[in-house]
Amino acid sequence: MRIDLHSHSTASDGTEPPAEVVRRARQAGLDVLALTDHDTVAGLAEAEAALPDGLTLVAGMEMSCARDGLSIHLLAYLFDPADPELSTECARGRESRDSRGRLTVERLNALGVPITWEQVTALAGDAPVGRPHIARAMVAAGVIDDPAQAFTEEWIGGGGRAFVRRYAPDPVTAVRMVRAAGGVPVLAHPKAAQRGRTVSDALIAELAGAGLFGVEIDHADHDDAARAHLRGLAAELGLAATGSSDDHGDLTGHRLGAHTTDPEVYERMVAQATGATPVRRV
């Protein structure tokens, strides 16, 4: 089985609708795909309705968390989407994205970047506004050539001239919320140094103690040294090792299936979930 546990659609900051994401997943030879849009499950119904034969869909979400100013992402799988505490927390996160986006645009305008909030929301559609939408607006305005260029200190990268922090829960709180909702939490790309998101080993150990299931190790943002280190740490802490594409469509070069998760790890994850079950069309 080929299993990809991290992907995005236009329900957050991906460039393709959920129906197209699942179609491409099957075309890429995947047997299992988790749709993990940021702080929302809004794309899951469309993905399930369009699910091609032979593909299993895992309901998921990528929660934005923070500790001491460090942005930390948590992948949540197979939780109860109606859980009131988790739903309220995610709604608060989406509202914070909106206010952060507006202020970011204002700061970019002050720096001479000719984009408007209306242009950004047009790119986002019905999804919460994320920094990738702002980056795409900057490309359209001719300020930068590629969205990746926006995520620097010059523009909207962490600590950048137009960077704005937003609300996010502590990751320990998020892990416990996901578990309470019957879900299974996995720490996303914890050693992505180029993103400015290097999570300390001490914090990973703390999250393991709070109920973390696993760590996303095989990821495009981890080099060989980071992967080797994380495998050793995961083994020491009793955490599962996952692999995923973190595909965002055009933004990441359509890389569904670029990294995958071992079927045994996937089966253990499903066995621990009590909030939802994978959906398969045969």
UniProtKB/TrEMBL annotation:
InterPro entries, alphabetized: PHP_dom, PHP_domain, Pol/His_phosphatase_N, Pol/histidinol_Pase-like
GO MF term (any one): 5'-3' DNA exonuclease activity
Domain Polymerase/histidinol phosphatase N-terminal: 3-67
Coiled coil: none
Species annotation: Thermomonospora cellulosilytica
Region annotation Disordered: where it falls in the sequence: 1-20
Name of the protein in question: Putative metal-dependent phosphoesterase TrpH
